[in-house]
Specification:
Nuclear Transport Factor 2, Chain: A, 34% helix, globular
Length: 128
């Protein structure tokens, strides 16, 4: 398997585990010192440091009932990104955002995640 195929497979697994709520599966894809940075000023913003904190963040995001629609898995020479369309409804609050979750890889695992959003204000209003 080429490095590009391996990166693509890692992205596919990450998305599948997230949709399924397979937290142990997500943990298996992460380095121990992984970080995940999200923009905004809300309950899920900032940087989660360490594999357990990243898994807890994924659990928290999923607990809001998001639908994680995978649009594309993108690979570079050394890294991978997921292009997603996330939607959810909680009472009158609605979330409808496009995002790119950029994953820096190390030794076949995710070592850093940075998420780019189309609607930071909408995310702030939804994740209160």
């Amino acid at each position: 398997m080429s490095q590009y195929e391996a990166a693509h497979q890692l992205g596919k697994q990450f998305h599948a585990f997230l949709v399924a709520g397979d937290w142990a599966g997500i943990r298996s894809l992460l380095t121990d010192d992984v970080t995940w940075t999200l923009p905004g000023d809300n309950t899920i913003s900032g940087t989660a440091e360490g594999a357990e904190a990243v898994v807890e963040r994924a659990k928290k995001i999923a607990s809001y009932g998001l639908r994680f629609e995978l649009l594309h898995i993108l690979v570079s020479r050394e890294n991978m990104a997921l292009s997603l369309h996330n939607t959810a409804r909680r009472g009158e609050a609605r979330l409808d955002e496009y995002l790119s979750t950029v994953c820096r890889l190390r030794d076949g695992k995710i070592a850093a995640i940075e998420t780019y959003l189309s609607d930071v204000n909408g995310m702030n209003a939804f994740f209160v």
